[in-house]
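Model it.
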Amino acid sequence: MTIEQHIGELRAELRNASDVSERREIQSELDCAQAELAVIIAEQDGRLEAEPPF
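Modeled.
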């Protein structure tokens, strides 16, 4: 599963979640997945170094 697919599934789960605590948990996971995707894109664009400086 790609990160984009995972984000799509989380969005669908969030739309269908009825319980407040479940919505919070899904939203938290969605936020993390979106942040991970942003890092991947930044690394690919050369805006972010993949390796820590030595």
